Fold:
Amino acid sequence: MREPSVQPRVIIIGGGFGGLYAAKALASHPVAVTLIDRKNHHTFQPLLYQVALSVLSPGEIASPLRRILRRAHNIRVILGEVISFDTQARRVLLRDTSSLPYDYLIVAAGARHDYFGNDEWEAAAPGLKTIEDAVQIRRQLLLAFECAERTAILTGHRKPPTFAVIGGGPTGVELAGAIADLARLVLAKDFKTIDTRKARVLLFEGASRVLFTYTKQSSRRAAEQLSELGVEVHVDSRVTAVEPGRIRVKDAWIPVDVALWATGVAASPLGRALGVETDPAGRVKIEADLSVPGHPEIFVIGDMATLVDDTGRQVPGLAAAATQQGQTAAQNVLCDLRGAKRKRYRYHDRGIMATIGHYRAVAQFGSREFSGIFAWLLWSLVHVFLLIGFRNRVTVMAQWIWAFLTNSGSSPLITEYQSPDAENADPPATPSELA
Ligand SMILES: Cc1cc2nc3c(=O)[nH]c(=O)nc-3n(C[C@H](O)[C@H](O)[C@H](O)COP(=O)(O)OP(=O)(O)OC[C@H]3O[C@@H](n4cnc5c(N)ncnc54)[C@H](O)[C@@H]3O)c2cc1C
Structure:
């Protein structure tokens, strides 16, 4: 292997869309790259909800970073959590108290959902961001049906569960539609005592329409398609409190078996740890070349950055933007090494789309809008095409075809569940059980 110390040292934090594409763009160039991530894998977040809904298995939407980058001889991967920086000494500090020097730093640590100062709500209404979140949500959803079936068998009281999705953006819309499909199509034949098709799926959005960043027409079509699936869509309905088993909407408490959080953006705390200007969501305000003001050697990209590009447009928090920014940040490092002028980042809009259960979706490409099955086919092709690794593309496509032909999920498994006979292991009674 080449001696790393004689080459400029580039540290990339985060192997998500931004960091991974920065690393790929630096592969085989005369720089010594170290990619640090607290997970050992890249997660294809747009398909996370399919893991949560048992359509796909975790391995089908995630790939080990080492494997993705194994042919890049100038890139090393470290499994570790970055907690801070010494920007004067140009060092990155890890949780295990070790530190690493850099000449260039690319920070792409992403964002999480924002609970608007009520972090305690997370336990009762988890968000979907990681594979672990998806597996945990899958467990909660399936357990709710199991509890309802058990109660029905033991007491004769048949009440299918109630689910609440908080936030009507793309993630909330996708989750609500997919839960409705799980209840209507996937589980209906497996449960003999409760009628899973009667499960209630409630979607709460504080704004006046779902998919607020889409056109009004796409929003309306999304709401219509959700209603066709039986999802009860509530707009202008801000959730003001969350407790285990119930949520408060405006002034009324609503009992729910499972609540899921799908709103708000809180950038990685690493943005504030850089000691530079951030917006209220903690996103770092960056320059057009994606560097941090006063620190041309530090780039911040993806969900943890905020930028209005040369077209006057706010760069959206999307995988496409993070990917493009990763490539531009890498190119700007290489421009410096060649003595060339840096590039100014400009967002290339590849369109936006959200799927709403089987065969339903909305898609916008510039001024063109689609909905229904055509939009869903577009969504499927784009997402499979973008999946990391050929093996995943083939298996995911096969899995989808099977799931859609048979209306079955690939892995409706509850893991980490102990028998009710085990000490202290009985799952808590759900509101449906108590009603
Ligand atoms: C459920 C869901 C669905 C989505 N659907 C779509 C979609 O359909 N289309 C679309 O364009 N976008 C979608 N997005 C948004 C898209 O996934 C993000 O915009 C994109 O992932 C941002 O990339 P990033 O590199 O900034 O961050 P991420 O992809 O989140 O990557 C951040 C990485 O940093 C690592 N990390 C974080 N903190 C540390 C630390 N302290 N130390 C070390 N490593 C750290 C994380 O482990 C992670 O690997 C979706 C997001 C979610 C959550």
Observations:
- Residues 421-435 have pLDDT under 50 and may be disordered.
- The CA atoms of residues 234 and 290 lie 39 Å apart.
- The pocket of flavin-adenine dinucleotide is lined by residues 13-19, 36-39, 45-46, 48-49, 81-82, 108-110, 128-129, 170-171, 268, 270, 302-303, 317-320, 322 (CB under 6 Å).
